[in-house]
Amino acid sequence: MISEPELVGGEEFDVHEVLSDVPPPRPPRARRPWLWALGGAVLASALWGGGLYAYAQKKDPGPDLGGYASPAKLCEKAGLKALGGILGKRSEDGVGPEMDDPAVYQASCSMTYGDQDAGYSAQLTYTLHKVTDPGPEFAARAKYYDLATPIGGLGEQAFFSDRGGDGGELRVLDGQAEFELQIYRQYSTDEQGNPLGEAKVVDLSGIDVPMTQDLLALMEALRK
Hints:
Blueprint: H1 33-57, H2 74-77, H3 81-87, E1 90-95, E2 99-100, E3 104-113, E4 120-129, H4 135-144, E5 149-150, E6 157-162, E7 167-174, E8 177-185, H5 208-222
Antiparallel strand pairs: 1-3, 2-3, 3-4, 4-8, 5-6, 6-7, 7-8
């Protein structure tokens, strides 16, 4: 009798196949780094643009003007009493052009002392720099105009020049404000060249002292 051959070795393996309608899960998708970089750049650009807009909307207060006023009514506030005590009575004022711009203010005034034909004249200029700093250029300009003598105790910087005994020029820088005061002897002649009036000769060798006193008083008056 022939029987079915036996499997040698002998363990039996059961194989079960499971069928399902649900597909197997897909492997995770790798993130694309360039998408993240692009998103970060867009966000950073938006934040920078917003900050720039906010900065632009904030008004720049500008430099500290130290209390100096504009307009100044320069001829009214410039008493120059110390000069009057030396040069004689102040007899005539002349108001120069006035510039009032957001960047700079400037006014000038002229005075006559003593005889109008043979006395002395003063020319005063006041400049208030509202935007730029005049400091770095001040000493260079003074040197250019031959103002070589420094004056202490008057603003931040001050320089004086003795104009050969006939007058003098004093320039002062105090923060954003700049002052220029000139004193000179006035000569007037007729058509034949003869002098008009009788000149009152004044020794102007120490004229820087009353000029300094008057500018100190003017600086205080303009800060009120």
